[in-house]
Each structure stands twice: as structure tokens, then as C-alpha cells.
Amino acid sequence: MRPYDADPKVKIVNSAFESARKSYSQRNFEQAVIFFTEAIEKAHVSTKSPLWASLHAQRAQAYRRLHKLEDCLKDCKVAIQTQDDNKTAWTTRASVLIEMGKPEEAEKEMARLLEGTFQNDTMVRHIKEKAEFERRKRKRPNYYEILGVSSIASEMEIKSAYKKRALELHPDRIAKENDQKKSKEYEEKFKATGEALEILTDTMKRKLYDEGYDKEAIEERVRAANRAAHEHQHNGHRHY
């Protein structure tokens, strides 16, 4: 949103606004913040004005680029309180929440927007999917840590580590101790060890895991790849 050129005061605001936009496009984010701040201070408009929301939302973007995340969130809050359908403020806020390690909060907010004003909005949907990805990534087990190997371990090293770990956690060995609580705990660890072996010794699955996907998402993508390969093979035979 661009201020109107109605009077000299607005022209001053307009000049600062345009300078801020130019600085931002040139990736001079510190200067952009200065100009946006000047525009905000000289914009004698209602705090309920869309212009007020727009100036704060765009300054928030500059703050984000400077990694001043708390300042960014404050500006997003002002913009949203002023204009609750300000997409720039909502999407900037969600992106910052993801960067701050709060993907659950970002995902919930984007889901709520998709159910309302921004039902078919591509950007909002993309950020929601990114938040969901980060949430699932944070909750997935660290298979390298489970096996006690590095992320660059060879397949041979992974298999060797699995054998050693599996012997330590084997249910038959723990059953002899007659400790139900410990037995259940070791059973879960034994299962996780098997999952680690399955994922890390399969080239495609390991690649997907290293990219951040969890076990469920990996299996979905493997099934999709297998279906695509089968269809390609089937279509190839039809040409003969």
C-alpha cells in the first residue's frame, strides 16, 4: 500500500516510504528500517488505518532480514491488530516463528487462515506445509545417534553398529532380568534400532532422512516413486 499524495505531510511520508522500499529492494535492510520508521513517525494517521498496518508489516520484513526477530514480531503484532487480514504481517510472523523453533504455533496460525480469509492462498499454504515439515523434523528420532555413528558413516559401519546395539538391546537378553519396565523400554529402543538400520542402509530413504523427512513421509515418497516407476514400465511395454 502506497500513501496518498493529498498534502505536503503525506508527501513527506510518501518520500520516506518509497526510500524504504528502494532500500529494501537493494537489500540495504538497515536503511530500510530507518526510512520505514521515519514514515511511521510522520504518518499522522489513525492507528486503525490500513496504511499504519502496511508500514509496520513492511518494516517487520526488514527486521526479519536483519535477524531482529523480536522487533519483527512486535511490528507484525501491531499490523495484525490494526488489520487482521494483513497477509504480509501474518506470513512474516509465521516464518519468524519457524526460525525461532516454534513451528507448531506457525502451523496452527496458517491452518486457521486457510480456513478463513486465505482459503486458497498459495503462500499461506506453502508456509503451513513448511511449518508442518519442521514440526515433524524436530520430533523424529536421530537414527545416527541411536546407532552411535556419524552422519557420514558408511553402510558397513552402520550395519556393524546395528549388530552391536541389537545384541545389547535384544528382548531375550532383557527378559532374563525379569524387569517389565526395563523390558518395555528396551523393546522400544530395539525397535528404533531396527528402524535406523532400515532407513540408513537404503540409499533413497537415507537421502530423504538427511533432507529432514520423518519415517512416515519417507515411506510415502518411496511408495510414490515405486508407483511412478511401475507406471512408466507399464506404459513402456504398451508401445511394443
TrEMBL record:
Species this chain originates from: Lotharella globosa
Signal peptide: none
Keywords: Repeat, TPR repeat
InterPro entries recorded: DnaJ_domain (IPR001623), J_dom_sf (IPR036869), TPR-like_helical_dom_sf (IPR011990)
Name of the protein this chain belongs to: J domain-containing protein
PANTHER family, sorted: DNAJ HOMOLOG SUBFAMILY C MEMBER 7 (PTHR45188:SF2), DNAJ PROTEIN P58IPK HOMOLOG (PTHR45188)
High-level lineage: Eukaryota, Sar, Rhizaria, Cercozoa, Chlorarachniophyceae
Domain J: from-to ranges: 142-213
Keyword Repeat: yes
